[in-house]
Amino acid sequence: MMAQQESSIIVVLTALWATFGMSYSFATDINISGTVVASACVVDAGTREQTVKFEQARAVNYTQPGDTSEWQDFALTLSSCPASTTQVTARFSGNADNDDPSKFANSLGDASGMALQITTRDHLTEIEPSGEISASVDPVSRSADFPLSARMYTPTGSVTAGDFKTVVQLSFTYQ
Q1: In what residue span(s) does the Fimbrial-type adhesion domain sit (predicted)?
Q2: Could you identify which of 33, 37, 109, 118 might form a hypothetical disulfide with 164, taking C-beta atoms 3.0 to 4.6 angstroms apart as the criterion?
Q3: How far apart are CA 159 and CA 60, in angstroms?
């Protein structure tokens, strides 16, 4: 009887070991994703560290809100774009003017009441701080051009003499 109990216990222990001692495996998926982007173009030397100069302005000529200087044309040019790049987007950043946030502030100058307005060369599209514009890459020259214009602008009509200086930073993305 004792032998029968021992063999029953061994059978039960073996069954318990087989049930609880088994390794469980679960299948799982790992999702991996990424983005393939177009290669960068070369920002031309004339575009880097570019300075747009305005003629000397007289504060007495800026007495009404919306008075402006003459347009000064300039361009951003990118070249040597790879064949896979068909479009370039330029994103503008800089301090927004306190009186007109759609314009860039005179952040480094001491003339008050003046802001910077930037538009496309045809003056139809204004580029605000944190704004962006896109240009197609020419398939033959492999370049992208952004013809632009800028002018000083008074949002208040109350201008004081001093320097007008600001910095507009650009970042480019390629499609």
Answers
A1: 30-175
A2: 109
A3: 8
Q: Summarize pLDDT for 56-79 with one digit per residue, the tens.
A: 989 999 999 999 999 999 999 999
How big is the CA angle at 160 (ends 156 and 163), to the nearest 5 degrees?
115
pTM of the model: 0.76
Q: Write the CA distances from 141 to 22, 28, 86, 145, 155, integer angstroms.
A: 68, 50, 12, 11, 41
Predicted pLDDT at 16: 45
Containing 150, the helix (H) or strand (E) segment is: strand 144-153
Q: How far apart are CA 86 and CA 139, in angstroms?
A: 8
What is the DSSP secondary-structure string of 156-173?
A: SS----S------EEEEE
Contact between 100 and 128 (Cβ < 8 Å): no
